[in-house]
């Protein structure tokens, strides 16, 4: 991926800029500073949001290289007075944070303050800050653009959203989630120096609202966006709705990063392992960052079989390295060992982390019977025809009513209710318009067996949210799509490869997003179904068209949540095409449980539950 589209690199550039010693010091001043080390070291003051933003792109050791003596939170009122040290503030420009900052500089704890806001700050908030600076202790106020969570190099999310869906009325925003999404998208565009054409899926009021608001913000901040380099081919921001592909978040994924999220949940690029038995203190919370962990970088998109081979190689390399130090017989041996011990320790801990993750993923796969469940769900959703209804209904009933037997003829342990509800939902989505659809009958049968009401309500709520009449009717392709058998697909010089593996029964389905991206490459997205927000110079105001040449810079934003599998698709597209730069983001990253619970939480307020 191009460095200017590498979100980690963008963040590091910003950090280097704000944390480096000011370049306007004279040589004499620099010599004088050598006699006073306290002038070198600094305080870094963050808030509850920017502390997470920074933790996801940097480490304490990296911050120490910039002579950060202490990292603290603005909200912490018990901080010590350190009047001999300068302070760098990286804060979100919210009303609450600006109020806290005004209180801080009215009664300062530090020698001076350089203030950086992580997004566009309004004029009234700047005026409040200036009015509070009676002591003229603020030496600098500036904006950087890091108001989003960086997940992977080409993957981001909005700040602190669990469920973007509004209560009571279908296809409306949860208000705080809308504000966060708008701020994150604008911040991302400015960080990547993009002034894009904006398109959205026409069947989604949520997408239209966000697209219109982003376009308005671009115009409102034309001074900032006018500094963006002019492009011969305009970048594209495409805002899509999760409802148009409800299948992908319901399927069990089989690649490493996705599996970790499905089994444990990845939150702010960390995984909580504290509930596992016999876990050392160092491994109770582990960090997953592709820039800090070479094994993770190389394996995050590997399937389960490839992961096993990679781990075996990793173990062998570790053994080989430690074997050379098994006998320390000379001073030279001892010196070499001591010099390299931290590196050996780091490798050992990293190996233990991935062994712990992979072994517990394997344990859960067997405990959840995911080998057979996944094969069934992949077969179910990788063919849109109704020709196999009888066979698929029969197998579904065996799963739902615990009739499945093993090779010895013994009944298998029952599946969890959430797995059963997921399988029923996939069946309901596929056969919704089929005349012999048995969804209602199956729900009644489960109800008689005292199945949990929330999971019974999930299926009709899902159909109300993402049923066939709610999804976009376009020529992009069915959401029930199978991986093509051809090894590669080239469109306008772009290599789309294969998202999955047609020979692998567990990776047959492809997310709808791949077909959307292929349409973009062909310049064939229907402008009536994917309309433009008017006003961009490259868009013909009369016809609403402007894509005679495919964009080379694309930002995809998924309202309602983006999956790690879709992020993998974009990462592989970037790696296969040096001329294309694409990033993907969304309101949040739901695993199967998150997605289902989000629908359950708000679905009852839409009135969908009455269907059972």
Overview of the molecule:
The protein is 42% helix and 12% strand. It has helices spanning 7-19, 27-33, 50-55, 60-65, 95-106, 123-132, 175-191, 205-220, 222-226, 256-263, 294-299, 304-323, 331-367, 370-381, 389-400, 417-430, 439-448, 453-466, 512-521, 564-576, 592-603, and strands spanning 42-46, 68-73, 82-91, 110-117, 138-143, 149-152, 155-157, 197-200, 236-241, 270-272, 285-287, 490-491, 494-495, 553-559, 581-586. The longest helix is centred in the middle third of the chain and has 37 residues, at 331-367. By secondary structure, the chain is of the alpha/beta class. Helix 5 (95-106) links the parallel strand 3 (82-91) and strand 4. Helix 12 (304-323) runs antiparallel to helix 13, helix 14 (370-381) runs parallel beside helix 16 (417-430) and helix 18 (453-466) packs across helix 21. The two termini are 49 Å apart. A six-stranded mixed beta sheet has the order 6-7-15-14-9-8, with helices on both faces. It has 21 helices and 15 strands.
